[in-house]
Amino acid sequence: MKIQVRINEEGALRNQRHAFSNRFTLVSELLQNARRAGASLIRIDHDPQAQVLTVQDDGHGLDDFQKLLSFHESGWDADTCTQERPFGVGFSKCLYAATRCVVASGRRRVDIDTAAALAKALVEVEERAESDAVAGTRVELHGVDLPDLAQRAEELCTGFPVAVWFNGEPLKRVMAEAHLATQASAIGAVHLAGTRDGKYTHDTWVFLQGFCVLRPAWSSPGSGTDVNVVHLDSRQFMARLPDRDRLIDEDVQRQRIDAELKACWRRTLGVAKAELPPRYFIDGYYGVMRGWGHLDLLNDLDTLPAALCSLVSGYPVQVEHGERHHLTPVPTAPSREAIESGAVQLVVLDDVGDDNAPRWMLARARGWLVFDWIGVHADHWVMRHVRFLEEEGQRVTPVGEKLRTALEGRWVWPTVILCEKVRLRVGKDQVLVSDAGVCHDGNLYIPDGETTGAPVEQLSSFTDEHDQFLDADRDADRDALADLLRLLRAVDPVQTLDSLLQSLRLGKYPLLHGKTFQLTVGVGLAPGHTVDLVDRVDRADSVDAAAAGGAHAGR
């Protein structure tokens, strides 16, 4: 027994109407046919109420009307078949989308009842008088449902190479190859956004035979100059049937396109580097080099991008997804001579945290520049002169320690160490800090010059497990530390005790109303205290007072 492939023609004709997923495919197919016919102008007229669509071009016309009803036979000349590999389904969508198709070219005309044609009925081709001849080809479709074609026409033709007029108005076609500055590449014509000003992008529109086959989901056809545009070589790429709005093997082809865009930028940057002074080249194109992976072009230049160097100008605090307000970019990058001589020290630091705040504070005190080492190639000369402080040991020592106590905040509960100064050591470098607190291992080292309460922000980012910033808790803990420092540094004992008692709101306890107490505070690093209840009628007679209910408490 032998078997072979067979095709149920009736079933194939009936079911192919469901193959098209995009109702605008019939418009793109008619435009494609006009382009292949050598048209220089295509006019589209659409009446959505009457459901009539007319497409007329000035191409070389239709020589064989049988091509309209021949499925999967391209009918194009050998050169077109070689260059574009047409599938031969260009007119079939019209048969499924319309109830009636009227096609005229030269002196011939055909009026097709689509239902009868799909049932394989014979269709008569009429010969017309010379006065009725049509230059090029005119296709008139009746019963087509395209209610929003007016809104989609501009986008549909945004990269089409032939001039198109829609209902009497020319479409802009901002991404057509003729309207863009392009360069030849291994995959086709490429337009790169940012070649003049460095405002690069990875957003890319890709066209095949004039129609979009790849685009960013968030991008719209605006000016056409703020995105990359690629017009693919149709000899190398094929679109997926039947709508031809996606590439075959899209994932593989996308990688190929991205690689070629990167190569095009390499050539463009090479020209700019040869023509411009280093500073202008870096100022204009550093973002491109970083964004498209060409940082090695900086390796032989003595100039650094200024954006890589920042001064620790403010107080370093923890941040979550926020701006580093404690860093200020330098207006001009240090010279190679200054870096290599040690006059300028570049350092690398992780984000501020409880485990590395001393390193940040030492860099702040020394005026070192925080360097974004990811922004240069691994073989760049500057990497030999950069210190990675996270790899160096650190030590924090209070100088002239006065006392230690606990801060009972809303979010943080650190030990507060009051001292005259704080000694920081990182590697072989050390410095004395007297103007700001330093957080380390859960402790807040507070020198005499610290009064703000800001050190709690070195201890915590005040962000909860849901990634919510607790600004109220941050403010409360800052205020609590500032208040604690004022109390600890107070010189009047009565004022100090009064401030502490006010925060306790003793008046809300009825048992204490009208009572007089004697408080004695001990001495030492962690002194206790005693509290005595004193009889207000006769303080001298302590025995009688005790017998009358006097009490004593100590801690």
Average pLDDT taken over every residue: 88
Please give the largest β-sheet.
8 strands, mixed
Q: What is the second-level CATH architecture of the largest domain?
A: 2-Layer Sandwich
Strand content: 15-25%
Q: What's the arrangement of strands in the largest beta sheet?
A: 5-4-3-6-2-1-7-8
Label the structural class: alpha+beta
Q: DSSP helix count? A: 14
Proportion in helices: 25-40%
| General shape | elongated
* Level-1 CATH class name of the largest domain: Alpha Beta
Question: Could you give the count of β-strands?
Answer: 28
Q: What is the radius of gyration computed over CA atoms, rounded to a whole number of angstroms?
A: 40 Å
Kindly describe this structure.
The chain has 555 residues and is an alpha+beta fold. It is built from 14 helices and 28 strands. The strands form six sheets. It has an eight-stranded mixed β-sheet. Strand 1 (41-47) and strand 2 form a beta hairpin. The protein is elongated, with a radius of gyration of 40 Å. It starts with 8 loop residues before the first helix and ends with a strand.
